[in-house]
């Protein structure tokens, strides 16, 4: 093994911050939950939810193009969109919006230094608020009976 490779391996094994640890982890390493703190897991979940929201945005724009096909095409879509399965997707969308928004608020409060030592409590408070709003939203989306 050459000298630079030995230095890189030693730096990777050393505790504490290291300016350069080589090429770094694989691309999917940030999804690995082992040994991660709550904030890191929330970070990874936030990124996945954000990708889902971007996908939804493009899907929504595509659906709006049905308006160009006339009233009958739009009515056909509305018949499909009011089925139980599609309403379940609306609840999933609400979950994504709540998680991404409330976690973003938590990250902003911690990152700005307002409450840097309370990130875990903020996460659980946002979770409780999010679950309550999600339950109310799900009941309103699916109707009360």
Notes on the protein architecture:
This protein is mainly alpha-helical. The protein has a single domain (35-142), classed as Fumarate reductase/succinate dehydrogenase, transmembrane subunit (3 helical TM bundles of succinate and fumarate reductases), CATH 1.20.1300.10. Helices cover 70% and strands 0% of the residues. The protein is built from five helices and no strands. Helix 4 runs antiparallel to helix 5. The longest helix has 28 residues, at 84-111. It is elongated, with a radius of gyration of 22 Å. It starts with a helix and ends with a helix.
Q: How many separate structural domains? A: 1
The total strand number stands at 0
CATH homologous superfamily heading: Fumarate reductase/succinate dehydrogenase, transmembrane subunit
Mean of residue pLDDT?
Answer: 85
The first-level CATH class name: Mainly Alpha
Percent of residues in beta strands = under 5%
Helix segment count?
A: 5
Question: SSE order in H/E notation?
Answer: HHHHH
Keywords:
mainly alpha; 3 helical TM bundles of succinate and fumarate reductases; 70% helix; elongated; 145 residues; 5 helices
Question: What is this structure, in a nutshell?
Answer:
With 145 residues, the protein is mainly α.
List the helices and strands and how they pair.
Blueprint: H1 3-13, H2 38-64, H3 71-81, H4 84-111, H5 119-142
Helix pairs in contact: 2-4, 4-5
């Amino acid at each position: 093994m050459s000298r630079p490779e030995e230095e890189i391996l030693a730096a990777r094994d050393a505790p504490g911050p290291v300016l350069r640890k080589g090429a770094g982890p694989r691309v999917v390493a940030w999804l690995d939950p082992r040994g991660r703190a709550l904030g890191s897991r929330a970070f990874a979940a936030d990124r996945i939810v954000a990708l889902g929201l971007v996908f939804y945005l493009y899907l929504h724009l595509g659906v709006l193009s049905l308006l160009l096909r006339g009233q009958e095409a739009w009515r056909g879509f509305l018949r499909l969109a009011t089925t139980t399965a599609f309403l379940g997707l609306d609840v999933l969308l609400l979950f994504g919006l709540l998680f991404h928004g409330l976690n973003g608020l938590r990250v902003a409060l911690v990152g700005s230094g307002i409450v840097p030592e309370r990130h875990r409590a903020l996460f659980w408070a946002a979770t409780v608020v999010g679950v309550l709003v999600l339950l109310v939203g799900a009941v309103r989306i699916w109707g009360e009976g």
